[in-house]
């Protein structure tokens, strides 16, 4: 296996004290950070279960459902008042091969082909067993969602990343449809959902075995959860500036749109008891518009995009994730889209309002020439004018000889007034976390499983993704797939 790397870091206690408020401060002072033989006698309640799941996103909800279906008494605790995590905000694409949906669409594909693609996209630098596991089971998970759970998928299957085969299966709406279906599946199986309850510390006995967690519910109710097996599905850490600076320093300061709960304390709880970290500094991200959240349609591939020096730098119709990595490494983490008046005239009412907001805020500028609009943002106007002239010449010829943009998107930008729109990037996930095996047991620094501790989802995605995102839909499928098997395996282990 690839050796895990761990550098000096902020402790979980430091995170709790710095970010979670006085109620959690009191709880942290009460519980402490060192393993103990018995719980503090002043806890308000003790709850026992076979399997405890921490985190209510796609990974955690799926893990809880599978554990309960296997006959384990299962409790899921979630620190927010609802099912959250980044999966609740996801568009709803899952990557996989050999699915029934592919067969219906006439697409011939196999898990072996998907494995080859994963290995091309950084998987060769990681444990090959996990790459194979994901390639073999991602399609199975899509069939489970579309078949057993009746989650609606679109007929069209898309190509993503640099893949030449259509493997991106798109939910007919957003992932919240799938998450709601899995939640009902879990409730029907008997999972006890407990909200507004934050895990504070893993309970570890003298033999190094995890026995559950100490948690705080609401303002100050202290609960001890005794569990035969514990599954951490607490998501990533993009909302923890210290952890991003430490583990993903190239993306320090990048704006994020992940779920509010992705603050990293779930990862730190395990690191505090000796769990190993694996990650190589990457993040998942998209292009961002300062006046609209998400993948705004103002980020138009028919525009010309330039960097802060006024130079075109990319095929505007290329893969969003790959462009994200380029822009995130620019000194200002920004790029600029050039519009002309006909492009503005075609905007919907909603986009027109957002466009006007950008002008009002000064992040979009207007000029009789593109040079004038550029200089209002501090960009070299002459350089940008030269780039636009060259771009329009390629549009007239019908071929982008610079970056290979498709002819359909290569449209001349030549009718003033002209506009230059400031754009940027935002993170949608962190690539790094617990070192796990294909049973989703959490490993220590010697690659030995920590007794009774499992993980699923983004909190352990560094085992599957190296540093660049292989293709849209890989992270979401990893959440559901790792959740399915972490739940099954934890239930089997506690019942053995």
TrEMBL record:
Cofactor(s) needed: FAD
Protein species of origin: Muribaculaceae bacterium Z82
Keyword terms of this UniProt record: FAD, Flavoprotein, Oxidoreductase, Signal
SUPFAM superfamilies linked: FAD/NAD(P)-binding domain (SSF51905), Succinate dehydrogenase/fumarate reductase flavoprotein, catalytic domain (SSF56425)
Lineage: Bacteria, Pseudomonadati, Bacteroidota, Bacteroidia, Bacteroidales
Signal peptide: 1-28
PANTHER family with a match to the protein in the record: 3-OXOSTEROID 1-DEHYDROGENASE, FUMARATE REDUCTASE
InterPro entries named among the record's database cross-references: FAD-dep_OxRdtase_2_FAD-bd, FAD-oxidoreductase_2, FAD/NAD-bd_sf, Succ_DH/fumarate_Rdtase_cat_sf, TAT_signal
Residue ranges of domain FAD-dependent oxidoreductase 2 FAD-binding in the record: 50-464
GO biological-process terms attached to the record: steroid metabolic process
Pfam family, one: FAD_binding_2
GO-annotated molecular function: oxidoreductase activity
Record-given protein name: FAD-dependent oxidoreductase
Coiled-coil ranges per UniProt: none
């Amino acid at each position: 296996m690839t050796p895990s790397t761990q550098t000096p870091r902020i402790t979980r206690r430091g995170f709790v004290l710095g970010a979670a408020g006085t109620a959690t401060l009191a709880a942290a002072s009460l519980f402490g950070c060192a393993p103990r033989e018995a719980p503090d006698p002043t806890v308000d309640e003790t709850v026992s279960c076979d399997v405890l799941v921490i985190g209510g996103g796609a990974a955690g909800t799926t893990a809880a459902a599978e554990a309960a279906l296997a006959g384990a008494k299962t409790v899921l605790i979630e620190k927010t008042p609802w099912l959250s995590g980044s999966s609740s905000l996801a568009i709803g694409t899952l990557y996989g091969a050999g699915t029934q949906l592919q067969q219906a669409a006439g697409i011939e594909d196999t898990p072996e082909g998907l494995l080859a693609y994963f290995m091309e996209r950084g998987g060769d630098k990681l444990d090959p067993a996990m790459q194979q596991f994901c390639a073999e089971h991602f399609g199975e998970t899509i069939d489970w969602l579309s078949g057993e759970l009746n989650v609606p998928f679109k007929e069209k299957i898309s190509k993503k990343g640099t893949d030449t085969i259509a493997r991106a299966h798109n939910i007919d709406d957003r992932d919240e449809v799938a998450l709601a279906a899995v939640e009902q599946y879990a409730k029907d199986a008997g999972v006890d959902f407990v909200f507004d309850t934050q895990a504070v510390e893993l309970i570890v006995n003298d033999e190094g075995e995890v026995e559950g967690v100490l948690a705080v519910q609401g303002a100050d109710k202290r609960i001890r959860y005794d569990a035969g097996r514990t599954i951490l599905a607490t998501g990533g850490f993009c909302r923890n500036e210290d952890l991003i600076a430490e583990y993903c320093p190239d993306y320090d300061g990048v704006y994020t749109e992940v779920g509010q709960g992705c603050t990293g304390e779930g990862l730190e709880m395990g690191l505090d008891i000796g769990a190993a970290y694996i990650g190589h500094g990457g993040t998942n991200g998209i292009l961002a518009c300062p006046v609209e959240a998400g993948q705004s349609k103002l980020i138009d591939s028919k525009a010309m995009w330039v960097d802060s020096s006024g130079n075109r730098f990319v095929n505007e119709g290329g893969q969003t994730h790959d462009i994200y990595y380029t822009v995130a490494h620019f000194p200002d983490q920004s790029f600029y889209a050039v519009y002309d008046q006909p492009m503005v005239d075609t905007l919907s009412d909603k986009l027109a309002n957002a466009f006007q907001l950008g002008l009002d805020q000064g992040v979009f500028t207007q000029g009789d020439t593109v040079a004038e609009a550029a200089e209002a943002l501090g960009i070299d106007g002459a350089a940008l004018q030269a780039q636009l002239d060259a771009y329009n010449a390629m549009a007239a010829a019908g071929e982008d000889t610079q970056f290979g943009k498709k002819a359909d998107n290569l449209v001349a930008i030549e009718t003033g007034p002209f506009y230059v729109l400031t754009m940027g990037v935002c993170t949608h996930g962190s690539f790094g976390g617990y070192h796990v095996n294909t049973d989703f047991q959490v490993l220590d620094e010697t690659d030995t499983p920590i007794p009774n501790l499992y993980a699923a989802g983004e909190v352990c995605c560094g085992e599957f993704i190296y540093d660049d995102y292989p293709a849209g839909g890989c992270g979401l499928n990893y959440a559901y797939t790792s959740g399915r098997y972490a739940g099954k395996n934890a239930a089997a282990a506690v019942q053995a």
